[in-house]
């Protein structure tokens, strides 16, 4: 668990730059288990890339991981990551999505965008989205790490979709987590080598009006809402009656 001074430093960095990197916070055993299981799921469900340029025609994405195994249940409340998300939003945040991304060779660059740019609020505004990207493999300039534009979350507009922008690579070693403000401009550069870029948790603040969720989490709740889970797991999933057994 991050100590108070470290946690405060990460929150300050996100407020200033729009992002921070939590280096080495994911346990090796968990990282290896996630890597192996994502390969299994990809093969079992015969997952193939999408047919649109935004998601990537050479990028394999597995959605709704909460419904696909107990291994994923602890990801939204990981003690080294959730406190940082709470600091950006508040402790009423709700889990929005749980998915993985594998960029394959020869992928084209994803357009620079902001995750909240479809939300009709005047910018800059208080954070309504906070996303995390878990690195199960090293993120480097050479292998196509996520591109970011530091400080762009403070601009008074969103990027023009498809326009070119100067950006930097969010390089980090395996086991690290990129955390960013939903208004930060970012994208994925062209893929030069096959590597796994899991994006296991996206967040919206439950205390804000009309929190937006990506995808249908009803199937996830069938596995996730049960007596064995903690109060915090129920809270981030938007289920205040955490002591009840609910089957959806």
For this structure, what is the CATH homologous superfamily? q2cbj1_9rhob like domain
Counted beta strands: 10
Distance linking N and C termini: 33 Å
The secondary structure category is alpha+beta
How is the biggest beta sheet arranged? 7 strands, antiparallel
Q: Could you report the average pLDDT, rounded to the nearest whole number?
A: 81
Overall, the morphology is globular
Query: Can you tell me the number of structural domains?
Result: 1
CATH topology: Jelly Rolls
| Uncertain stretches | 200-216, 241-248
Per DSSP, what share of the residues sits in E-state strands of 2 or more residues?
Answer: 15-25%
CATH architecture classification:
Sandwich
What does this molecule look like?
Helix content is 21%, strand content 19%. The protein is of the alpha+beta class. The chain has one domain (4-212): q2cbj1_9rhob like domain (Jelly Rolls). Strands 1, 2, 3, 4, 7, 9 and 10 form a seven-stranded antiparallel sheet that branches. A three-stranded antiparallel sheet has the order 6-5-8, with no helix packed on it. The two termini are 33 Å apart.
Write the layout of secondary structure elements.
Blueprint: H1 4-17, E1 19-22, H2 28-44, E2 59-62, H3 82-88, E3 93-103, E4 130-134, E5 146-148, E6 168-169, E7 177-181, E8 186-188, E9 195-196, E10 199-205, H4 218-224, H5 231-236
Antiparallel strand pairs: 1-7, 2-3, 3-9, 3-10, 4-7, 4-10, 5-6, 5-8
Helix pairs in contact: 1-3
